[in-house]
Amino acid sequence: MPAWLTLPLLVDLILLSMLCEVGWLFWRHWRLDMRGVPPFLLQVMSGILLLLAMKLALQTTDVRVIASVLGLSGIIHFFDLRSDSGRPPGPA
Question: pTM for the whole thing?
Answer without folding.
Answer: 0.77
